[in-house]
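Researcher: Re-running this chain for the archive, since the previous output was lost when a drive failed. Same request as before.
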Amino acid sequence: MSGMGKIVVYELMSLDGVAEDPDEFVLDWDDAMDANLASVISSQDAVILGRRSYDEWAQYWPSSTTEPFATFINGVTKHVVTSTPLDREWASATAINGTLVDFVRDLKKQSGGDVGVHASISVSQALLAADVVDELRLVIAPRIAGSGRRLLDGLPSIRLEPIRSERSPAGYLLVDYRVVHQSPPDGSGR
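Model: Regenerated structure tokens:
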């Protein structure tokens, strides 16, 4: 089991669960949120992005100086969920061959760091539904968004174990959960 990276979903969301367009409800970012993000990405050596997030981020991040994320996301290996070729150049980005869930299961078997899923709602939902996510790390804004795509809609019942929670000075909840897997991934008993 050692050496296997974890699949970690990191999402910004409103109190009512909306994760789409976080710029609409994440209005003030503080040092605790920076430190939390730095901790999340410190163990990640690959990320998985959906196509829409990739297209938006490939425009924004290569020229961004917003740290600690800019250096991380520009340098890290990026696996993109897409059915069409990537038309926008971005360092270390490749399209995923085959199905997302199979790809992620194979990726988990390789030794290495954690694999982050950032911003991509449909990717997060697909991986949570397939029981391949190991940790859910959420930043919950003190706002009700009212509308937008919700992160946890349409998922099966999933048991979570709290790892930690903290309130940032600006009032955001930083909560980390471990996903309790339905059965051991290798099929053996515990």
